[in-house]
Amino acid sequence: MSRAVVFAYHNVGVRCLKALIGRGVEVALVVTHQDNPNENIWFASVSQVARDYGIPVITPDDPNAPEVVEQVQSCQADFLFSFYYRHMLKAPLLEAARRGAYNMHGSLLPKYRGRVPINWAVIHGETETGATLHQMNVKPDNGPIVDQMAVPILPDDSADEVFAKVTVAAEMVLWRSLPGLIAGDAPHVQQDLSLGGYFGGRKPEDGRIDSLASAERLHDFARALTRPFPGAFADTAAGRLLLWKTLRAGSAAPAERAELRCADGRLWLHCADGGRLAVLEAELAGLPLTADNFAARVAADALAL
Predict the structure, then answer these.
(1) Which residue, among 43, 40, 33, has the nearest Cα to 11 in the 3D structure?
(2) Which of 98, 301, 117, 84 is nearest to 198 (CA)?
(3) Dist. CA 276–CA 260, nearest whole Å
(4) Using CA atoms, how far apart are residues 112 and 86, in angstroms rounded to an integer?
(5) Which are the contacts of 145, defined by CB distance < 8 A and separation ≥ 6?
(6) 67 confidence band (pLDDT: 50, 70, 90)
(7) CA distances (Å), 301 to each of 211, 239, 247, 263, 291, in order?
(8) How far is CA 102 from CA 59, 89, 137, 178, 179, in A?
(9) Interior CA angle at 210 toward 155 and 123, to 5°?
């Protein structure tokens, strides 16, 4: 029986941990994160799964601390796996497993290496993304690829909807890769890093809307940041506007900058390129903004972003 140490968090962490268990891998230790009370915890708990299966679990602030490395080394694992774990693992940890360390990344590597790859893919209007299992080294997301699976990004998919597809793809990629990894004959294909780039993490303030962007770009931006994420926003004369759900809806006369209007019983965002978005869900100054209350809330014919 193969033995593994697992660093994991989030839904991908839960599903991939269960895939290991389902394939008969002995998980000697799970390393995960303490949930941040200031974060919207909308995803499943790796800690709970570990407890359900009687697997030892730790939540160190620094996974590379000497005492953590020593504990991982003492497990004498064949494999180390990282499934959406948020900290970089340094060389002593990566070298602690006899047969290698492997990471599941939420993109079609080498594209969108780095942080929050699904959100970045939606922001950039990609039509597909996926999950990639690759061997780890000290540089993020650039080791040889074992396997990957693509999923479609539909024109109106939110990042959350795409994340659900990528979670299933990650489970399937790991499930079908494990026999080869255990047997020692899994492919390891070097990445051509020139075909992709590295992207950093995102903060709530990064959701500020570019009022000069095209309708297509604003639509992609809004759906990439909608719930459970902090949202795409603009500070307007009537307060902070949050766009939670939009649909592309043809064209109109170009606006000098994006502005929100009400017509035909609906909210519309007229964009600088002449494109128009139907606004299906929005919030203004902390309260829902609808076609019915637009005039009273905005006190104008249009609200500039």
Answers:
(1) 43
(2) 117
(3) 10
(4) 16
(5) 109, 132, 133, 134, 187, 188, 189, 190, 191
(6) very high
(7) 18, 16, 21, 10, 12
(8) 20, 11, 9, 11, 14
(9) 30
Contact at 8 Å (CB) between 220 and 159? no
Is 11 strand, coil or helix? Answer: helix
Rounded-to-integer distance, Cα 224 and Cα 229, Å: 8
- Cβ atoms of 268 and 249 within 8 Å: the answer is yes
**Comparing C-alpha atoms, which of 4, 1, 81, 10 is closest to residue 40?**
10
User: What one-letter code names the amino acid at 227?
Assistant: R
Rounded percentage of the chain residues whose pLDDT exceeds 90: 95
**Sequence-distant (≥ 6) Cβ neighbours of residue 95 within 8 angstroms:** none
- Going by C-beta distance under 8 Å and a sequence separation of 6 or more, which residues neighbour residue 222? 232, 243, 244, 245, 246, 277
pTM (global) more than 0.90:
yes
Q: Minimal CA–CA distance to 161: which of 101, 214, 227? A: 227
Supply 105's token pair: 């990344």
Q: Check pLDDT > 90 for residue 253.
A: no
Give the chain's largest Cα–Cα span: 69
- Check residue 106 and report its DSSP letter: S
- 164-197 pLDDT, tens per residue? 999 999 999 999 999 999 999 999 999 999 999 9
pLDDT tens column, 230-245: 999 999 999 999 999 9
